[in-house]
Design brief:
Helix content is 27%, strand content 27%. It is globular, with a radius of gyration of 30 Å. It is of the alpha/beta class.
Length: 728
């Protein structure tokens, strides 16, 4: 099983390699979903990839955002630089770009990003047919669906086991984009989900806290289940985390994978949580039906509680704060002091050690006595983690014979090279070269990834200058590195390059649609010549049949009626949808790649859930059999093709947990669902929920503020009734 680690900067890159990662994923300065990380450049990529390959660590490059048409040339140039650097694989979100890369760089290895939302067998089969080698499954994927994917495809399966968990279904969060113009699908998410929200039932305030902030994942205890299910790669999130965090997480999971019986999972989890954790870990993810996703009390790194504030005294223009603590703190540490709703974050400077476990620190903040002390960062411990280096063993065999060139054989694993001196060695006139001198010079490997493991010396009484011996060592190391890389690169697929396609011309006609969840929505408009997209609140045969019949009764032709398919559904739920479609024989709006299983059976429109952001994606979907496309709500179309939402209340998030259970502490046996639950942020933005039910309940979060956009394409009007009277 592969252990895949994040690298948001060079320090994290080395930390991942040295602590036992089998592969590293990273992004360049553009086209990746963590654009705020330091990231890497085309200039330093080749050297870093070579370094990783020396350790037999793979490198995957994230090009996992949606690409606009005017970025395609730069996008291909970025990939071209990665190909030349011998990158192992590419993590891709944009479907059109994946197809373009396969045509431009035959042989390229593509991994489907979690942003593509693959979470069931139907979606996996579609991508397998389209040439992907691996799927990075959505975090919402159930264990039973993982098993099905393993049993019925040859795809490699990658699954997140550690780190931040997005509250919204993968690839379908538009909150940051629509509210602030910073798209998560473009690598610029503002993480509005991590902000505090007030929760209302209608106008009644119920609670306040971090109600959209998901707990961090830690699935270490689930490793036997994941292995048995057939997961090939365990993925760690964290390209915005510090190198020390990457080092510890990789080290802990390496320990668990290599020696499960001897691993104290709880102890390893504690080590990780001291470096970063939003309170208690989520140890289940969505592997089973789980609603315990949110911890409303915590939205950031909580740290480890180590004591309390004993006293605070003004000292000149600052405050002397006396802490009683049970763990040491030192200069450059970070602590948080908490009393009720008040929090004080302090970078530790000078520390005066007192008796009875007390210390004095100094701050400009007046922290009240009784506040709890949490250690957020121990600089000394993190330096030990971040500075750790793992070297590669090298064996040297040196031979110095009179009248023959000096010979040095260097071995690393099964790779062996031999170098010789330029001149034959002469007999020593006085003191000859000693074994101690040879050992001293051949051990000087400080500027290399190698450390001497074994040395054999066969030596006559010869003369050899120290400089010549050093030169022989340098040549041997260079030759060995190249031989290791040559052996590694020989195992990579050959990638050629062909001429880039021209921007495809779309001939899909503009088409107008109405979105409805109730036939009454349609009675208020002139629906003639419009397609009608039915968005049922419950996906059952009876509900869909009733809606279709009511729409037909108004006079709408059946050929103009489409069923809006849900963004997320287990494979068992996909079979329920298949039963509905078989009975109704209607068109569909595909909002997940899993829905393309039906593209040849029913008239298909590519929906907003597929994030059609460029003409390449639109053309690729039409080539697959889609009759038309609906542009992403994040995209302002420039061509008069397809359709786009122009007015309404689109889903800004799709949630696979139940916000009602989170707010009320209830469960499915005591359902408290109602349509007046409101989340309100600090800027008075208000959000509501629509429940979508198949076998399980899913929830769409949407804004009370109407979405409006001008477009040259066909127009889509969202007529779904608003459940509050004040909105028009």
């Amino acid at each position: 099983m592969e252990l895949l680690a994040p690298a948001g900067d060079i320090k994290s890159f080395y930390a991942a390699i040295y602590n036992g990662a089998d592969a590293v994923y990273l992004g360049l300065q553009n086209f990746n979903a963590r654009i705020k990380a330091d990231n890497f450049t085309a200039d330093n990529l080749a050297d870093l990839v070579a370094w990783a390959h020396l350790y037999h660590v793979k490198v995957y490059v994230t090009i996992n955002i949606l690409i606009s048409d005017d970025e395609v040339d730069d996008f291909l140039a970025t990939v071209r630089a990665c190909v030349r650097a011998h990158v192992d694989a590419y993590i891709v979100q944009d479907f059109g770009m994946a197809q373009l890369l396969q045509r431009t760089f035959p042989g390229i290895v593509l991994h489907a990003s979690t942003q593509m939302g693959i979470h069931n067998l139907s979606g996996a089969k579609v991508l397998e047919k389209l040439g992907f080698k691996r799927v990075v499954l959505a975090r919402e994927t159930k264990l039973d669906d993982i098993k099905l994917i393993r049993q019925h495809t040859k795809l490699e399966i990658e699954y997140f086991v550690q780190g931040a968990l997005c509250v919204a279904f993968s690839g379908n969060c538009y909150l940051s984009s629509i509210k602030n113009g910073n798209s998560g699908n473009r690598g610029k998410c503002l993480q509005l989900c991590r902000l505090p929200y007030q929760v209302y039932a209608g106008e009644k305030l119920l609670n306040a806290g971090y109600f959209l902030s998901a707990k961090d994942l830690c699935l270490m205890q689930r490793l036997p289940e994941l292995i048995a299910a057939g997961v090939d790669c365990l993925k760690i999130e964290g390209r915005l985390k510090r190198a020390s965090y990457v080092a510890q997480v990789v080290r802990s999971y390496r320990q668990a994978l290599d020696d499960w019986a001897g691993t104290d999972v709880a102890a390893e989890q504690r080590k990780i949580s001291t470096l970063f954790a939003r309170g208690a870990f989520n140890e289940n993810a969505y592997l089973h039906h789980n609603f315990a996703i949110i911890n409303p009390q915590v939205g950031h790194h909580q740290g480890k509680k180590i004591g309390m504030v004993v006293d605070t005294v003004r000292f000149k223009n600052i405050f002397k704060i006396t802490l009683q603590i049970d763990a040491p703190i030192g200069q450059n540490d970070a602590i948080r002091l908490v009393q009720g709703n008040r929090q004080f974050s302090i970078g530790v400077g000078n520390v005066n050690q007192l008796s009875n476990g007390c210390v004095d620190i100094f701050s400009k903040q007046n922290v009240p006595a009784g506040a709890e002390v949490y250690l957020l960062k121990s600089a000394a411990k993190e330096k030990v983690l971040a500075d750790f280096v793992r070297y590669l063993p090298i064996d040297f065999y040196f031979t110095g014979r009179i009248g023959a060139p000096a010979q040095l054989v260097a071995n690393h694993g099964a790779v062996s090279v031999m170098v010789k001196s330029e001149q034959p060695l002469a007999a020593a006139r006085t003191a000859g070269l000693t074994t101690a001198q040879v050992q001293k010079q051949l051990s000087k490997l400080n500027d290399t990834p190698f450390r001497l493991h074994h040395l054999e010396i066969n030596l006559d009484a010869v003369f050899m200058a120290v400089s010549a011996l050093n030169d022989l060592r340098r040549k041997a190391v260079i030759a060995l590195k190249q031989a290791v890389l040559d052996q590694y690169h020989a195992g990579l697929p050959a990638i050629s390059e062909t001429k880039c396609d021209q921007l495809p011309v779309l001939n899909t006609p503009p088409q107008n649609f109405y979105l409805v969840s109730d036939v009454r929505d349609l009675q208020q408009v002139d629906w003639h010549d419009y397609g009608v997209i039915i968005c049922p609140r419950e996906y059952s045969l009876a509900t869909v049949e009733r809606l279709v019949s009511a729409v037909v009764a108004l006079g709408v032709e059946r050929k103009l009626i489409y069923l809006n398919l849900p963004v997320v559904a287990t494979e068992a739920e996909m079979e329920l949808l298949d039963h509905i479609l078989s009975a109704q024989k209607m068109g569909i709006v595909a909002n997940n790649y899993a829905h393309l299983r039906w593209v040849q059976q029913y008239p298909t429109v590519a929906g907003t859930g597929l994030n059609v952001y460029n003409q390449y994606t639109a053309a690729a979907l039409i080539k697959l059999g889609c009759q038309n496309i609906i542009w992403s709500i994040e995209k302002t179309p420039t061509c008069a093709c397809g359709s786009a939402l122009v007015s309404g209340y689109p889903a800004l998030m799709t949630l696979c947990h139940c916000p009602v259970q989170t707010v009320y502490g209830s469960d499915c046996t005591q359902c408290h669902y109602h349509n007046n639950l409101i989340y309100q942020d600090e800027k008075q933005n208000r959000y509501r929920f629509r429940r979508v039910k198949i076998s399980h309940c899913y929830f769409e979060l949407y804004s009370e503020e109407r979405y409006e956009k001008a477009t040259p394409t066909g127009k889509i009007y969202d007529l779904r009734s608003t459940p509050w009277k004040s909105m028009k």
